[in-house]
Amino acid sequence: MLKMHNIRKSYRTDTIETHALRDFSLQVNEGEFVSVTGPSGSGKTTFLNIAGLLETPTGGQYLLDGEDVSSLNDRDRSRLRNEKIGFIFQGFNLIPDLNLFDNIDVPLRYRGFNAKERKKRIEKVLEQVGLSARAKHLPAQLSGGQQQRVAIARALAGEPRFLLADEPTGNLDSLMARQVMELLEFINEWGTTIVMVTHDPDLARRAHRNIQIVDGQVSDLQHGTVGAAREIA
Amino acid sequence: MIGYYISLAMRSLRGTPILSTLMIAAIAVGVGACMTVLTLNYMMSQNALAHKDDVLYAVQLDGWDPNEAADTANELPWQLTYQDATALLRSDIPTRQVAMHRFGFTITLDESEMRPFTADARITTADFFGLFDVPFLFGGTWNADADFSPVQQVVLSKATNDKVFGGENSVGKTINLNGEPFTVVGIIDHWNPSPKVYDLNNNPFADSEEIYIPFGLHRKFEIYSWGNTNGWSHSNEEGYEGFLQGESVWVQYWVELDTAAQKEKYEEYLTGYIRQQKEQGRFQRPLKFALSKPSEWLVLNEVLRDDNRVLGWLSLAFLLVCVVNAVALLLAKFLRKAPEAGVRRALGASRNAIFIQHLIESSCIGVLGGLLGILLSLLGLGGVRQLAMGRIDQIASMDWLMVLAAIGLAVLASLLAGLYPAWRISRTNPSIYLKTQ
Amino acid sequence: MFELKPMLSALWRNKISALLIALQLALTLAIVSNATVIVQDRLEKIARPTGIAVSDIISVTFMPVPVNYDMASAVAADLELLRNMPGVMDATVTNQIPLSGSGSASTYFTEPNQEIGGENANYYQTDEHFIDTLGLNLVAGRNFTRADFDVIGPNDTYEPRVAIITQKFADVMFPGEDAVGKFFYSGGDGKPREIIGVVERHLGAWPSWSKAGQVAFYPLLVTGNHKRYLIRTEPGQRDVVYKQIEEKLAERDPQRVIHLDTLSKKMAQSYVSDNVMVKVLSAVMTLLTFIVALGIIGLTIFWINQRSKQIGVRRALGATRANISRYFLVENTLIAGTGLVIGMAAAQVINHFMVNQFSQPALSMATLLICAAILLSVSVTAALAPAIRAANISPAMATRSV
């Protein structure tokens, strides 16, 4: 499903070059639920942005669903993002002045579905997350857990093969966090591959596999490809 | 997708009412000021004789003071002397030719309660109506022999006929001009070219004359021009005849030359005429004459004055400031919405999609600003009309072309204003907005 | 204490926004300063002393209907009637209406039988009442007397024997000399005209003429198909008299068409294009300054919102309210100052173009500096309210997320 080989990513400001990822290699198989952990500043977010086609790597190869996406242009990357990838964020990132219906509508618009198809899909995912009755509400009128369920609904509306979650429960209390986690597991059981970045070791353990990123490299204990141990400043 | 973008734009405008109002107002004021001035300049630049621009020519001859050139744009007197005008009328080369000038009469009617009034008159040869394409409602022009002998006939404007005869077909009736009876031979339909290209000597935006009188009546009524009369030499002859035969210029002259060959022939004729006059001691300046097309005549007479050009440039500069203003405000607005654009990017919007979405938001501001700008320019034109004390009533109005131009200008201005902010937001890295801060 | 260096680097990071404000101010200064010189020039033109009691004068033009009309007797009877009307100070007959844009001029010489090197003057054919009617000030010599007055037909050849001229025309014809008693001549003519008097000032028929103010008056009535009167009323009586004149004249002789105007209106019509320029340019300048000020307010608010957390941090670290306000005002001054310096250069370039292409007046450094100072104060004033608001941001902002 996802295969990264020797990915490098460096950020350049006027004076300093920072290496966020170095010789980063990883494979995630179809249907897997992978959790990604690591200390702050280790490169988790950079990995997620590259995996989600929001950023391009400085070097290396990235195959998504068998297709080399390292060198695609913005339009094709946007199309892939729209069709194959769903995002869930810690801060939910719902668009505040759009109601739930219109929020979920956003990716479907870019997909180019007609009005009927969009309506059908929006109603379906709203029902799946149990918020059908609140389609006309604005995000601010919902609790955090409900907002995150809307965000998940929005991510699922386009039926992506691959879901990227960045601390999806970080802003939620434990009860809501458990509900959201159960929802993700349910989605995964229906065949969607999930990669989830988290701080929470309990959540990380609930995934099929846990990957640790340390200083821009994978330290995958299960697969024994330990990166060079480095001290973290 | 465009419909989606427009609905997003309207939603976004409603979301920040103060900023949106500021931007719409900036564009509206810029467009309003610009269109007020440009409409005036556009109307002042109209050529009512454009359809005959290739065949009509204003005639100028240089019979001016040997010591000093005439003080005009091309150093030729604007008008001709009476003696030259009557001499040129004898040429049979032009298809049509007109010698004319402004005058005024009192108008009375026998056995009528109508109060006497003065009417602006044009003393002209019969070809006037054909040469300038003046439409007749009733009757027609006088016979050409009235251009050389005193025939008391008159052609009325529609407004005069309405006023004096209640709009009926008055051909054959008599009205008194300066107390003398004249027979009505024709009534022209509404005809009021502005600028008054055929007579630019005084106010080029004045109305057309109210009555038209044959050219053969000068001696009988001792007619002086009510337009400009300019002279440089004192006549030796006494009395009115001395004035007619003098070197004062006061007759406007137009010819219609339909072919190049005809024009060439007429130029030869004018050359010959001036040579012949030189032999008689007149035309002591170097041989020079000019035939100007209506479009050239308008430029030569500076109908669009320097002041108007200054205002034209100024209003464009004004619009430029409004555009820069809108760029700054749009940039602020778009950057504030950068997180939303980040989310949209994550959900599959390409950079182009974000760019177009924001450009459409800019043009919505443009359309709204343009509509408001049209209202402002109508107000502006009303204001200028007031200020101009009735001199430019005819031209201080917008036609459909100008209304469309106003909207076009507004959309263009706002697209221009939106270009950089939309580009900037579409190039912003979305990932920085997706992280919780 | 002005934290100039960190301020500059903050500006550098927001360079596009800062540049846009500076650019607006630069363009505005270039436009406003050039418009100001034009407005100044036109206002000076309109405010020139006319030498005439403009607000008390009514002009009358009349055209008789009958063919053989006794113009001389009609004029005498009309003037008699007008001068005896209550509220009327004096009345005179004239060939032209002052300041109306329509009149006669001729070329004059100090020697007989000349053809080149003459001077132009606007001329009046009037009578001995013109000084009192127009409210002119006779500074040398004497007024006309009835004995100087002549009546001729429109086609008669005639040369006036005496003339009164304006001081300006006298200075042009006889620089540094007393003009009274001197003679002058019409072109190609040997008949002398004696200058018997000089009036201080009179602008003449065409206020926009380059030789406006060069005027000669002759005691003469040329009968023609129309004539004009000027009527001076007691101060404040003009509108009362105005309503009666047409009726009185028509009563005396109904066989004519009479047209009345006030001299104030004629003058306003003559200055109409200058007036349009003044009003339109003033409106443009006001609107422009207003729009730029609104833009500055909008952007400063946006800027402060963007940095509200930063401001909270500064406050938490001990910055006073005054420090915060001052920061934004100094920042605004820096941007505006840069823009105005660029604008001063642009204004000069544009003015050069205006002078050469459109014969507009030159821009003085003083005007430019005054305009720049005004715009600077507008800019700072516009930033003031948001800057004060910024000072009210709570230090608690520092600890708040989002």
TrEMBL record, chain A:
Keyword set includes Nucleotide-binding: yes
Protein name: Putative ABC transport system ATP-binding protein
Gene3D superfamilies: P-loop containing nucleotide triphosphate hydrolases (3.40.50.300)
Keywords from the named record: ATP-binding, Nucleotide-binding, Transport
Record's GO cellular component terms: plasma membrane; transmembrane transporter complex
Entry annotated with the keyword Transport: yes
InterPro entries per record: AAA+_ATPase, ABC_transporter-like_ATP-bd, ABC_transporter-like_CS, ABC_transpr_LolD-like, MacB-like_ATP-bd, P-loop_NTPase
UniProt domain ABC transporter: residue ranges: 2-232
One example GO MF annotation: ATP hydrolysis activity
Family named by the database record: Belongs to the ABC transporter superfamily. Macrolide exporter (TC 3.A.1.122) family.
SMART domains assigned to the protein according to its UniProt record, in alphabetical order: AAA (SM00382)
TrEMBL record, chain B:
This protein's record includes keyword Cell membrane: yes
Annotated TM spans: 21-44, 310-332, 353-380, 400-423
Domain MacB-like periplasmic core: 20-270
Predominant place of localization: membrane
Domain ABC3 transporter permease C-terminal: residue ranges: 314-430
Domain of life: Bacteria
Membrane topology reported for the UniProt record: Multi-pass membrane protein
Presence of the UniProt keyword Membrane in the record: yes
UniProt xrefs under InterPro entries: ABC3_permease_C (IPR003838), MacB_PCD (IPR025857), Macrolide_Exporter_MacB (IPR050250)
One GO molecular-function entry: transmembrane transporter activity
Keywords: Cell membrane, Membrane, Transmembrane, Transmembrane helix
Protein name, entry field: Putative ABC transport system permease protein
Organism: Microbulbifer marinus
UniProtKB/TrEMBL annotation, chain C:
Residue spans crossing the bilayer: 280-305, 326-350, 362-385
GO cellular component: plasma membrane
Protein's cellular compartments: Cell membrane
InterPro entries referenced in this protein's UniProt entry, alphabetically: ABC3_permease_C, MacB_PCD, Macrolide_Exporter_MacB
Membrane topology note: Multi-pass membrane protein
Organism superkingdom: Bacteria
GO MF annotations, alphabetized: transmembrane transporter activity
Family the UniProt entry places it in: Belongs to the ABC-4 integral membrane protein family.
Protein name per the record: Putative ABC transport system permease protein
Source organism per UniProt: Microbulbifer marinus
Organism lineage string: Bacteria, Pseudomonadati, Pseudomonadota, Gammaproteobacteria, Cellvibrionales
